[in-house]
Amino acid sequence: MKIMVTLGLLAVLSGCSSMGVEPWDRDILAKEEMQLTTDPIEAATDDHIYFSKEASSGGRGFGGGGCGCN
Amino acid sequence: MTKPDDQKISAALAKATCALLGATAIVPVQAEEESKWDFNTALLYYGEDNDRVQDLSVSLLARRNLLDDRSITLGMTVDALTGATPHGAIRQPVAQTFTRPSGNAAYTVPANNLPLDDTFKDTRVALTASWQQPLGRLYQFNVGASASKEYDYLHLGLNAIIARDFNQRNTTVSAGFAFAADSFDPVGGAPTPLTSMLDVGDLSNRQGSQDKDIVDFVFGVTQVVSRNLILQANYSFSDASGYLNDPYKILSVVDGVSGDTVTRTPPPGVEGPSHEYLFESRPDQRTKHGLYGQAKYYMNGKVLDVSYRYMTDDWEIDSHTVDLRLRFPMGDTKFLEPHLRYYTQSEADFYQPSIVDGAPLPTYATNDYRLGNFDAITAGVKFGWQTRNGNDMSVRLELYQQRGSIPADSLIGNQVGYVQYPDLDAVIAQFSYRFGS
After folding, report:
1. What are the C-alpha distances in Å from A52 to residues A29, A58, B235, B238?
2. Are the Cβ atoms of B335 and A33 closer than 8 angstroms?
3. Among B37, B263, B340, B400, which lies 20 to 30 A Cα-Cα from A49?
4. Residue B283 class from Cβ within 10 Å (0-12 exposed, 13-18 middle, 19+ buried)?
5. Chain A nearest CA to B348, separation (Å)
6. pLDDT band at A17 (very low <50, low <70, confident <90, very high)
C-alpha cells in the first residue's frame, strides 16, 4: 500500500514537473485576486453558514466542529 | 566583523532604547522587512424568511508578518442569533402543543402551521490563533488553535498543516490534521434518544452534558499550470464520534394508516404535549470523505474562480457542490464579482418524516431537514473598492435558497401532499473592511 501511494505521488509529481512557470513569470499569480482564498473572513463565514444549514462541510479545509448548530 | 545576527540584536536594542526614551527610531534596514498588522474586519447579516433564524455577526482577523516569512494570525467572531427553526414535528390540521426544550414551559403552534421552536436565541464567540513559518527552504508549517462558546456548546480545537514545495515552487503538496473536542450541554439536559417528549416539569428522560470528538485530515496538491492558471486538489477525511444528535429535534409519532399524529392528554392541571413526539436518534459515529478541486484563471484582468466538491459519508449522504465566481475589474481600484453556488445532497439513510405508532422502533431516526434530500442555490454579487488611503472595502449581497423533497414512499395516508420539506430562503449581506496599521 505504502509503495503504491509513493509511486502514485511520484507519478503526480513527475507529471506536474512539466507544468509551471519560471520564478520571474509570477507577476499575475502574485496578485491578490489570484490567491486561492482571496477573502479569508468571507470564506470562514460561508463555511460556517453552510456548515449549519447543510450536511456536508469542509473540503477546502477542515470541516469539523465548532458549532452546536449541526 | 559583524554577523547578521548581531545586526538584528543591535537593531532590536536600538529600537527598544528609542522606545524607552520616547524618541523616533531610525529604522534599521532589517526592520523594513517587518510589516505591521493587517486587519480584515466584517459585519454580516444572515436572515431567513418566515421569522426563522437571524444572525448578526462581527468578525476580525488580524495578521502580522514577521521576519523570515513567519506570521501570526488571530481571529475573533461574535454571532448574535435569534429566530425559530423547524424541530422535526410534522404539520397537523389541528393546533399542537409542545414542551419547551428547557422542560419548564409549553407553547402551542396553530393548526396547519409548520411547527417551529421559537426559543432559539444564542450568542456565539469564536476565537482562532495560528502561527506559520518556513521549515528549511521548501517546507511551510502552520499550527493553530480554535475555541468557541455558545450558551449550550463549547468547542476546543487544534490543527497543524505542513506543506512542501516542488518544481521551482510550482507544485505544493500539503498535509493537515485537526482535532476538536466539543461538548454539548443542552438546555434542560440532553434527552435520551427515542424517548417521548414529556410534560412540563418532568425531566426524567434527560441526561447531563454530552461530548463529541472530531478528527480531520486534509491532503492537498496545488499546481501552477501557467502564468495565469493555478489548480488545487484536496482529499479530506473526517471522523466524528460521540454525541452527534441534535437534542432539540423531535419526530411525530403517527397512525400507520391515516398518517396523523397520535394525540395524548396531559394529566389534569399539568401542561404538556398535545400529541406524541419522540426525540431523534443518530448514530454515534460518522465518517466523511471529500474530494475538492479548485481552479483560478486570469483572463485579461478578469479572474475566474471555479470549484467543485464531492462528499460522501457513512450516513449515506452524498453531496455535490459547484461554486463559480467571476471578478470583473472596474478601473484600477474597483471590481464587481458575481457569485453562483449550487449544492445538492441526498438524505441520510435514517431520515424519515415520522415514526409509526406501534411498529418496532428504528435504531436511528431523524426529521432534521438538514439531513434530508434537497438542492440549494446561492446567487449574489460583491462590489469592492479601494479607499483613498489604500484600504479595501467590499459589500456583498447574496440570496440562499433551499428546496427539498421527502421521498414519496415515506409519507403515510394524509401526509401525502400535506407534509412537505421546510423550504428555506435567506439573505446574506456582508460589509468588509481591510486595513493595515
Report:
1. 33, 12, 22, 16
2. yes
3. B37
4. middle
5. 9
6. low
For the record, the C-alpha cell of B340 comes out as 453562483
Distance, CA of B347 to CA of B319 (rounded, Å): 9
Residue pairs spanning A and B at CB distance below 8 A:
189
From the list B114, B110, B87, the residue with the least C-alpha distance to B100 is: B87
Task: Break chain B into its structural domains and give their ranges.
Answer: 1-33, 64-383+400-429
- Chain A window 25-64: which residues touch B at a Cβ cutoff of 8 Å? 25-29, 31, 33-36, 38-42, 44-45, 48-50, 53-56, 58-64
- Suggest the residue from B57, B61, B224 to mutate for an interface test with chain A (most A CBs closer than 10 A): B224
Tell me if B272 sits within 8 A of B106, measured CB to CB: yes
Interatomic CA distance for residues B356 and B361, integer angstroms: 8
CA distance A68 to chain B (A): 6
User: For a pLDDT cut of 70, what percent of chain A falls above it?
Assistant: 69
Name the DSSP letter for residue B238.
E
Say which residues have a Cβ less than 8 Å from residue B174's Cβ, sequence separation at least 6: B161, B162, B163, B164, B218, B219, B220, B221, B222
Read off the pLDDT of residues A37-50 as tens digits, 9 standing for 90 and up: 999 999 999 999 99
* Closest-CA residue of chain A to B57: A45
Task: Give me the sign of the Cα torsion angle B238, B225, A23, A42.
Answer: negative
CA dist B405 and B358 (Å) reads: 26
Find the residue in A nearest to B370 (Cα): A54
Nearest C-alpha in B relative to A54: B370
- The residues, ordered by sequence, that sit 6+ positions from B405 with a Cβ below 8 Å of its Cβ are B373, B374, B421
Closest chain B residue to A68, measured at CA: B153
β-strand pairing of B354-356 with B250-254: parallel
User: pLDDT tens digits, residue range B259-299?
Assistant: 999 999 999 999 999 999 999 999 999 999 999 999 999 99
